[in-house]
Every structure is written in structure tokens, then in C-alpha cells.
Amino acid sequence: MAPPSRSTPSVSDAELIELARNGDRAAFGDLVERYQHVVFRAALAALRSREDAEEVTQEAMVSAYLKLDSFRGEASFKTWLLAITWRRALDRRKSLSDLLRRFATFDGHAPPDYPAPGRSHEDDLVEAERRAQLRRLLRKLPAKFRDVLLLMAAGDHTVEEIAKLLGVPAGTAKWRAAEGRRLLKQKLTRLGYGDD
Fold it and tell me: Using CA atoms, how far apart are residues 31 and 16, in angstroms rounded to an integer?
């Protein structure tokens, strides 16, 4: 008789972890399915390269599987997995010789600039230049500000999760985000892009 199938949405992370620790590979597969998009977005936020983010996602999942016995539940499984991912992404980022290019581009190309309805071509050109300038300024920010802003921009993480990923208190993560935004706004204003 086949074992009864489980409905993964109703199975908690803790239950899946326990099953995976006891050799149930499908249980770990369920955890991967549950969190792979979040892991990928964190890696993409750090690396700005889809190919590198995919590789780091795979590496992080394998590493989590191999280290599953070390998971103590002090943080959520998602936060623990994201911490593994972030460390791997930072290691990858440090080893890349074209670090600056990766922060200024997406998948090796500048993001597409789509015209906004009701705007003139000149307005679109000014906005495209402003975005390009913002990318240049972002890559020049100190890593402690840049990393928080990139993780927040990914949209998958709470401030508390970002703080745990970076190993800082939540208040520090909030301050770094605010300070990073302030520095970017200040630099854009100095370059003549207004203070909006």
C-alpha cells in the first residue's frame, strides 16, 4: 500500500524538515519548491546576474540539504536558508572581476526603458539618464548601504529578515536603508536631477 500523500501547503516547515532529516528527499523537495523563488531573488539582488543567481540558488539549496542537521530553529527555516544564500552570493560577488558592471546592468544588459504614456520623448530620455545615473551611484555606495537597498528592492524580505541576513539589528538595517536613500538622493540632487 502506498503511503498517503501529504498536502504540502498544510505541512509546516518543521514537519518537512523532520521528514527530510529522516531521509525523505521529497520533503526537502517541498521545502525547495516553497522557497526557491525567494532564494533566487535574494541571490539576484546581490549579484544582478540571472545566471549567477541561478547557480547560487542551486548551491545554497544543496548546502542547506547537507547542513540540515545543523538547523536549530532559532530563526525560521526561510531566514536560515536566506542567510546561506546571501553568504554564497557575497562569496560569488567578491570573486567576480566585473563587479561594477554587474551592479550597473541586469543580465549583462541595461534594463529596458519603456516609454511612459503621456510623456514626451525628451522626458523619457531624461528619466532613462536619471535611472542610469542612479545605478552608477548605487554601485559606488558602501556595501553596508547598497546591500540593504538591494535586498529591500527585491521585495521578498522583511526588515527583520534582512537584518538577520546581514547580521545586524533591525534598527541598524532600517538606518542603513534610510542613510543609503539619503545619500543617493543627495548625489542625484547635486547632479541636477531635482530633489523629488
Answer: 7
CA distance 139 to 141: 6
C-alpha cell at 18: 523532520
pLDDT tens digits for range 20-35: 999 898 999 999 999 9
CATH class of 8-98: mainly alpha
**pLDDT tens-digit map of 67-101:** 999 998 888 999 999 989 988 888 877 665 333 44
Confidence (pTM): 0.56
Architecture of domain 110-196: Orthogonal Bundle (1.10)
H helical segments located in 5-120: 13-21, 25-47, 50-66, 77-95, 99-104
* Helix 170-190 vs helix 121-140: crossing angle, to nearest 10: 130
Q: By C-alpha distance, which of 79, 100, 97, 92 is closest to 35?
A: 79
Contacts 24+ apart (CB under 8 A), 116-121: none
